[in-house]
Amino acid sequence: MSNALGAEPHKKNRKPQIHTGIFVWFISFSLFIIGLLWILQIFFLDDIYLYTTRNGMQSTASSIAMMQEKGILNKENLVELVENHRFSVAVHKIEAASPNVVTKEMLSVNFTGALAENITAADYRKLLASLYERTAASPSGTISFDVRPTQNVPTEDLASRLVYAFLHPVNGVEYLTVIDTELVPIAPTVALLRFMLSVFTGLFILLALVLAYIASRSISSPLVRISRAAKALPSGSFTPPDKALYREIDELSDTLGEVAEELKRSERFQNELIANVSHDLRTPLTTVIGYSEVMRDFENERTPENCQLVIDEARRLTDFVQDLLTLSRIQAGAAVHQTEVFDLDGLLSETVDRYRRLKGVAGFTFTYQSDGAAPINADKTELSQVICNLLNNAVNYSGDSRRIEVYAELSDTHVTVKIRDFGIGIPKSELPRIFDRYYKVDKTHERARVGSGIGLAIVKRILESYGADYGAESELHVGSLFRFSMPLHKEVALLPPAKEDKM
Ligand code: ADP
Fold first, then answer.
1. pLDDT tier at 442 (50, 70, 90 boundaries)?
2. pTM of the model
3. What residues contact residue 430 under an 8 Å CB cut-off, 6+ apart?
4. Which of 20, 173, 315, 383 has the most CB atoms lying inside 10 A of its own CB?
């Protein structure tokens, strides 16, 4: 494991701290909002006022036209329509267009400052005639204009106002509707707004500063605490800080806690591995040396049995070293699959036969049931190793029952191999870890066992290199079932027909 002491010191990071970042973003956003308010309220107030009033007039005009078409335009409806806006409205019927424009007022609603009441009747008639000509000339039949005190029109002496006129034919008769309203002088409003905005800006900036500070602290400080706590990770310790306000930060803390656990576990495994490997190497070596010395010194000890014992121990040693090498080769990714299409059913049946011959004398019974030929494309040696490792375990841990059952079940796409024993079983709590390298359930008696503790790790690596599904089920003192599935190779026809073998 890498050591914290050996780690390079962190390079000086010139990036801003997270709370500075959050603070700056928050303040920038607040300033942007305030700026926008100033621009809209002070600089464009005039335009916005004119724009919304003109829009209001347009929609009032279309409502009047609609009511006229439906024949429901009367004083009451009209008052209801315009009183909110305080628009003055006059609907005129065009009785003659030439040589002079003759109009007749049909309906009107006037508010204080109405155009009709602020100019003479003669001027108003003149204005109506000009409005008629202008609306008739306009392609949309509508005109709108604002009248300023500076403009040299008949309403020169009036306050600024907005006038909207539209020409609308109903049943062949033309109606000219004039909507007008006095425009409230903007300057005093702007002055009032400016004062209010200044107060608001001051308060808003103050509030934004406080909020930005709180927000940046509440997000950044848990992160800073986690970052500090995480510095102890390389040594495998991590004390999670108190729960934070936000879920992601808690999740980060939990994840780091799991990483620390994993690091500790991996360090423990590594230590265990070294201890176990050295022990497992030393035990047979001691036997070999001991027996060899006895045989050297005492002639009557040079029996075939003692020689066999030495050979057996040496073989066990070779097997163990071979297992270690295989595992490290697979782990390093150095193993290259020598794939070929072969019948897994055939391989299983041969292997089970061999075990029957080898272990039958010791009272083991093996049954094999298969659904038939199972062509797969894989490395036969590797698959053979998987099967042997699982069968060895079934033999080693089958207790007194000594019964082992092997199945090969076919589905449309896969063959599933199951190896069942009725032996000592595995406690539920240990099941998830038995495929770990050098993991042994029965640690107290591990020396008495024949296994190297890496058989299942090899099985796992090989099966995972094929992306195969695998697993184990077990019940203590009842037995275990190990299974794996491999995808079937398509060309089934090339292989021998199905066969069944039972014992
Ligand atoms: P070993 O060489 O010790 O058998 P493995 O990696 O093959 O190592 O297995 C790991 C551990 O899983 C074993 O030590 C044993 O405790 C447990 N185990 C494996 N197979 C079985 C089984 N069929 N029944 C009970 N326990 C088993």
1. low
2. 0.49
3. 441
4. 383
